[in-house]
Amino acid sequence: MNISTTFTVIALVFVFVLSQICGYIFNIRADKFYKSFHFTGGFLTYILGDSLSLNKIAGLIFVVFVGIAWEIYEWALWKYLSKKNIDRPRKKDTTNDLTMDFVGGLSALILTGLI
Q1: From its phi and psi, is residue 83 left (phi > 0), alpha (psi between -120 and 50) or beta?
Q2: pTM score > 0.90 for this model?
Q3: What is the DSSP letter of 24?
Q4: Is the dihedral of CA 79, 83, 87, 91 positive or negative?
Q5: CB of 68 within 8 A of CB of 3?
Q6: Where are the beta strands (DSSP E) in the chain?
Q7: Structural domain of 61
Q8: Which end of the chain is more exposed for a tag (fewer CB within 10 A), N or C?
Q9: Which of 108, 115, 101 is nearest to 8 (CA)?
Q10: Are 42 and 103 in contact (CB under 8 A)?
Q11: Domain count within the chain
């Protein structure tokens, strides 16, 4: 694993921990707030996927799969831990989250192609 891959993994873990702290400790539930986390997560996930493969499109597909896995994680948290109606995943929120993941990954694809 090279240094950029290691940095990307550390950054992804940081974004994950920060989003959990903001969401649960500070009781932030606004979907607009989490758009930046999904964009950043998609961006960093693309960089990780691109560094693990030789194909740029495979990095973007990796972003989509990780985004779907994240939404399944959110659903499982609600279903098995929270069970509060306010925490229930909504179709619009899921669609927005996956879109922001993809836009973040696409932005990383474009920027890494330019650099």
Answers
A1: left
A2: no
A3: I
A4: positive
A5: no
A6: none
A7: 3-114
A8: C
A9: 108
A10: yes
A11: 1
User: Can you read off the two tokens belonging to residue 76?
Assistant: 């499982």
Residue recorded with tokens 């950043």 = 40
Instruction: Give the angle 23-28-32 at the CA atoms, nearest 5°.
Output: 105
Residue positions counted in the chain: 115
Q: One digit per residue, pLDDT tens: the chain, 115 residues?
A: 577 778 888 888 888 888 878 777 877 766 677 888 899 999 999 998 988 887 889 999 999 999 999 999 888 988 888 777 766 778 988 999 999 999 999 999 999 886 5
Task: Estimate to the nearest angstrom the gap between the alpha carbon of 61 and the chain centroid.
Answer: 13
Tokens of 97: 């989250």
Tokens of 64: 């989509």
Half-sphere exposure of 113 (CA within 13 A, CB side): 12
